[in-house]
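pasting Alcohol oxidase for the record, 635 residues
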Amino acid sequence: MASLYHLSAVLLLSIIPFTTSTACGINSTTAITTDAQAFSAIEFDYVIVGAGAGGLAIATRLAEIEGTTVGIIEAGVFHDGDPVIDVPGNVGQALGNSTYDWSFETIPQPGAAGRILTLPRGKMLGGSTGINNMAWTRASRAEYDAWESFGPNNGWNWDGMLPHLKQPVDVAPNRTGLPLVDFEMYEPTFEGFSGPVSASFNAWYSDVFSPYLAAANSSGIPSNLDPDAGTTAGLMNSRSNVERDTGTRSYAASAYYCSHASQPNFRVLVNSQAIRVVLKKATLPGLYVATGVEFVSNNNTYTAMAKKDVILSAGTIQSPQLLELSGIGNSSILKRVGIEPLIDLPEVGENMQDHVFAPAQYQLKPGILTFDALRINATIAAEQSAIYAQNGTGMFSGTDSALSFLPLDLFLDNQTIGSLIDSFDTVVTENSTSVFRKAQYEIQKDWLRQGHVPQSEIIMWSRGAAPLANESYITLLSGVLHPASRGSVHVGSKDPLERPVINAGWLEADFDVLVVLQTLKFALEIATLEPLVSMIDSRVLPPPDIQDDQALIEFIRENAASASHPMGTIAMAPRGSGGVVDGNLIVYGTTNLRVCDASIIPNGIGTHLQSTIYGIGEKLAAMIQDAQNTADCDS
Ligand SMILES: Cc1cc2nc3c(=O)[nH]c(=O)nc-3n(C[C@H](O)[C@H](O)[C@H](O)COP(=O)(O)OP(=O)(O)OC[C@H]3O[C@@H](n4cnc5c(N)ncnc54)[C@H](O)[C@@H]3O)c2cc1C
Ligand SMILES: *[C@@H]1O[C@H](CO)[C@@H](O)[C@H](O)[C@H]1NC(C)=O
Ligand SMILES: *[C@@H]1O[C@H](CO)[C@@H](O)[C@H](O)[C@H]1NC(C)=O
Ligand SMILES: *[C@@H]1O[C@H](CO)[C@@H](O)[C@H](O)[C@H]1NC(C)=O
Ligand SMILES: *[C@@H]1O[C@H](CO)[C@@H](O)[C@H](O)[C@H]1NC(C)=O
Ligand SMILES: *[C@@H]1O[C@H](CO)[C@@H](O)[C@H](O)[C@H]1NC(C)=O
Ligand SMILES: *[C@@H]1O[C@H](CO)[C@@H](O)[C@H](O)[C@H]1NC(C)=O
Ligand SMILES: *[C@@H]1O[C@H](CO)[C@@H](O)[C@H](O)[C@H]1NC(C)=O
Ligand SMILES: *[C@@H]1O[C@H](CO)[C@@H](O)[C@H](O)[C@H]1NC(C)=O
Ligand SMILES: *[C@@H]1O[C@H](CO)[C@@H](O)[C@H](O)[C@H]1NC(C)=O
Ligand SMILES: *[C@@H]1O[C@H](CO)[C@@H](O)[C@H](O)[C@H]1NC(C)=O
Ligand SMILES: *[C@@H]1O[C@H](CO)[C@@H](O)[C@H](O)[C@H]1NC(C)=O
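structre below
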């Protein structure tokens, strides 16, 4: 179980050759080019690296400003109309395949029984939004408010983010029809209705969906009918970023790119990898100006030119790598590999936070329909394939959408919570290694004490995580949302095409393991409740002989996997207290080099990340536009 989502890669017997139409229609490739020579001859206002969630959001919004030219450099290509990406039922198939996935690996992880774990990252127009699991969620108010607590930073809080969390999305109207409670209704005040990404409720629910909700409900988890309103705690039926009319994935490429594909001031260079930001000394001493980006295309090196800003949106793993390759980072790390340090910012690549989950998997009694049927029953797979091809509905259009975000007091007694807080106190004593870390731990400890902010999540999969042939399953994935562990990513060499060294730090703090343990035990309890328990044949994971806490902890260390939510490696905070970028997302020591992706999140959020990363791009675009308007008025 190298990565959580690798598990679903074994789901289908084979890819069913759907004929999906191209996402953008006739203009799908208008802005796309592979002509590196021509691209490097243009002097753009903005050059952006990476066409994922953050990159396409910022690029397309900047391209809406009249007279502004925008060029993006993307290492992958546009998989337009490719069923591996577009068909929700094929989720997981792209993972580990170099056509779509960078397939990074960590160094051996001591907290995870010494395993080397894979870290999937989308390599394509759309980035990781092209391979993700399509859960469309956001975090709680307090989690965004924490961002601004490290210092003044231009409204990076819930109130400042909310308009930009609405901008990316067009949510489909309410539908009704679930037996337990109507989980398909959200309060419209908090939703967006005019953005490029489509989000909708499922069109297909498995036989275990409602029984699971009922069992979770009777275990005491309240239903959250409005999880986008600032409080995520409780049991929800999340929306998915699926375009319901066609049943296809709605992601950064099909949404943000396609809606801007025919704009003449917007160019996307694909199949090209950025290797360095070109910096020159500014007139003010000690400052640098970014003038462009060096990149490799077909083994040749070129430079893209930027008149205004260079914006890195290469994601949590590769944006810090690019900073280090450009001479920005911890000077001793740079010198060690032979890179000349220009700006000493020791926190580049540090502070990585992620969500780590462990599975409980149950084999179901015969005749219970789950996504496994597409893997094990050729008749059903063929039927569903026809339904999907004709109407874009049915099992192939479905996702796993039953999530619960759990503050500890929802499922643990005071004594257990007390022992978790004690465990956290040990981390604070041992590992408050910097002012920044200390400040983060203060916030996390307040959340533990107050009990409103969810500390763990249970994701229900209507499928096996590690399935055997011919059987159907339910899987409950239990994870920690606000870990105490921190990881890092750094260059291991000055060769820009070499992979960075990733030490994810997963489960290094005992606190993290104990949170997973308590959540897993609670998931095991839910599975003993009606009406779910009558559908279960037997427990598969953890193996039934694993019972006591010590054995469960070993199981967790040997089987836990990341939800692929790394963030925080280029934190937004004041310089000198852990920050790499300021409140305008400008890298300290530069006048115009910005970062716009998941790496700027200073303090991890306990949710699935994509809607927030789009929101960061939307907010940065608004800030840049405001600054331009002010400058225009002044002049
Ligand atoms: C398997 C998986 C499942 C997930 N499930 C969910 C989910 O269900 N719900 C959810 O909300 N989130 C989910 N996520 C997380 C979410 O998709 C990511 O957090 C989000 O896409 C991050 O956005 P980003 O802009 O930081 O990076 P990305 O979207 O990864 O984009 C980075 C882009 O930069 C490009 N790039 C990198 N380096 C270079 C370079 N040197 N030169 C040129 N281009 C470069 C990459 O090819 C990529 O296109 C999942 C992620 C994964 C991997
Ligand atoms: C990877 O994806 C490509 C394109 O869909 C496909 O042709 C190839 O068979 C896949 N490789 C593996 C190992 O699955
Ligand atoms: C969806 O349902 C909720 C709860 O009944 C209601 O408040 C809201 O107005 C509905 N939203 C839309 C867009 O109709
Ligand atoms: C469980 O569902 C019932 C029926 O909808 C509801 O009244 C009750 O509040 C729910 N229980 C919890 C803990 O939310
Ligand atoms: C395609 O692009 C052309 C030229 O930019 C534009 O006139 C036309 O409206 C676009 N068509 C669609 C369907 O977007
Ligand atoms: C690039 O160079 C490498 C090594 O020199 C070679 O193996 C590869 O075929 C070249 N690729 C292209 C696209 O020219
Ligand atoms: C910089 O890196 C060196 C070498 O890895 C390390 O010893 C040092 O602690 C780092 N400096 C800071 C401030 O993190
Ligand atoms: C496949 O599903 C069909 C329809 O539900 C059922 O009749 C058939 O028995 C199943 N086949 C197998 C091998 O389970
Ligand atoms: C598609 O939907 C139509 C209308 O609901 C229905 O008549 C038809 O049978 C569906 N197609 C398939 C293959 O199920
Ligand atoms: C648990 O602690 C809370 C707050 O400290 C208190 O209100 C509650 O009564 C305690 N519950 C039990 C069962 O001790
Ligand atoms: C799965 O079921 C089919 C049809 O019932 C049978 O032919 C096959 O041997 C089974 N495979 C395994 C691995 O049990
Ligand atoms: C402190 O951090 C180190 C390095 O990540 C880790 O090994 C150790 O377990 C942590 N201490 C606690 C109490 O979690």
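The two ends are 59 Å apart (CA to CA).
Confidence is low (pLDDT under 50) at residues 5-19.
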